[in-house]
Amino acid sequence: MNIYQEELLDHYENPSNYGTLPNPDISHEEDNPLCGDQIRMDLLVEDDKIKEVRFCGHGCTISLAAASMLTEEIEGKTLDEVKQLTKDDILEMVGIPLGPVRIKCALLALKVLKAGAYGINCWPGEEDE
Amino acid sequence: MHTSEFRPLDVERIRKDFPIFATEPPLAFLDNAASTQTARPVVDAMDAYYDTYRSNIHRGIYRISEQATEEYERARERVARLINAPRTRQVIFTRNTTESINLVAYSWGNQNIREGDEIVLTVMEHHSNLVPWQLLAQRTGATLRFLEITDEGLLDFTQFRDLLTEKTKLVAMGHVSNVLGTINPIQSVIEAAHAVGAKVVVDAAQSVPHFHVDVQQLDCDFLAFSGHKMCGPTGIGVLYGKLELLEEMPPFLGGGSMIRAVERDVSTYADLPAKFEAGTPSIAEAIGLGHAADYITHANLAAIHVHEQELLKYAHHRLKEIEGITIYGPSAPHQKAGVISFNIAGIHPHDIAGMLDMHGVAIRAGHHCAQPLMKRLDVIATARASFYLYNTVEDVDRLYEGLCRTQKLMTRRRR
Hints:
The structure holds 2 protein chains of 2 kinds. Helices cover about 40% and strands about 20% of the residues of chain A. By secondary structure, chain A is of the alpha+beta class. The mean pLDDT of chain A is about 90. Chain B has 2 domains: about 10-40 and about 300-410, Alpha-Beta Complex (Aspartate Aminotransferase, domain 1); about 45-295, 3-Layer(aba) Sandwich (Aspartate Aminotransferase, domain 2), CATH 3.40.640.10. In chain B, about 40% of the residues lie in helices and about 15% in strands. Chain B contains 14 helices and 15 strands. Chain B has helices at about 10-15, 40-50, 65-85, 95-110, 130-140, 155-165, 185-195, 215-220, 245-250, 285-300, 300-320, 350-360, 370-375, 395-410; strands spanning about 30, 90-95, 120, 145, 170-175, 200-205, 220-225, 235-240, 260, 265-270, 325, 340-345, 360, 365, 380-385. The mean pLDDT of chain B is about 95. The chains are: A alpha+beta, B alpha/beta. At the A-B interface, loops of A face helix 12 of B.
């Protein structure tokens, strides 16, 4: 399977929800020290639901495409529902096999989201380690 | 150069010593600045140790232990010959360049560096020749001063002369930049540093494997390099030091082998080199490194340098054709070793490396353990191809073709 398949490239080139929000309820930014990729996520929360989400930053195809896919996934969901998202959910969204280094690229956006919204400060999938 | 008669590399023959290239199409391995492939004779020498005389060195009163000791010490002689060390005991085996530099920073540094002293580094240093000095400065109250580079990636030598004062106690500098490929004028640096009474540590990780480095000609005080970047195994490195300095320095690590006599509260220490080799060393790896030193010497270091220069020139020539490419470092090949760092507008270096991998081309992408340099270049990361004696023009062609395909795929839908 080609790791740069169409859907991923589409998200990279035309990301959904790219940008910032003027008065976000939650705004958080993190980077991946391994490669310097950086993602910020802004959330507008109403009645415990994510009303609007934007992300921005710089990174490789996989980190930015995964961020774009994640924002599509969480818009309209409750904070509780979003909290249940796991590493495997992201990998399923990305839909291609990734080596140990590139997995962190894919998970950066979820890490930003969980750190910002719930104060969970570790890589998804490493919560129990 | 040291060798009397120049003969070009027989690359086809050399490649037979590296089974990893036996596939069709062969792996285009262009990440040699990170770590090179290990030559078959090196692995054979290590296998012979494991298969026929595996035992600990020193003090063993039986035949194979004596043989292991002999081979371990012969490896030291081989390495001493490679860098023209005056005495074999000036070659200390460590784990790698990083450990060698840390050894100097702790042992020599703690003894000689005081508050108010200055340590001069460059902005292009690898973290291994930066962080140990930061730690030393924090322990002692010394100050780090940084030599800047020109936009071409060359040292600003005028600034260097201004930086050197009677406060300068140490200059620590990479011989060749692992990112830019810049070959620093290390001989002039050493002369200027000695003129103000400063000692010089040369990080030779990117030079010793690629051209002849003569520690007596350079007159450097310390020189560090790694086995795994010169066709040798991982886990073995070298610190060379001037005899009078090494003899005055206190031990770095304490333990077995580095002692003469141990009492309950105090010990006296062994002579060089054992003083700095506490514990059972990497015996097989040292033996392997000795054979790697012979391997590159036999291949001919002058010819290796010429071969890499040709690949570098060819790579510059081809890569320049790519739209939106920025190549970092000096443009004159004689100021640059076989390292080519670049970025292509609009494509993240990780994507470049990821796509090249799908075409059997291995390069590195990232900050290359040189974050201050990335900041100076105003980039987050670069892609980097680096050459060694077994690389071919075809490897460069495949790099070029892979980059073209990457660019086509990544930019085709952009307006």
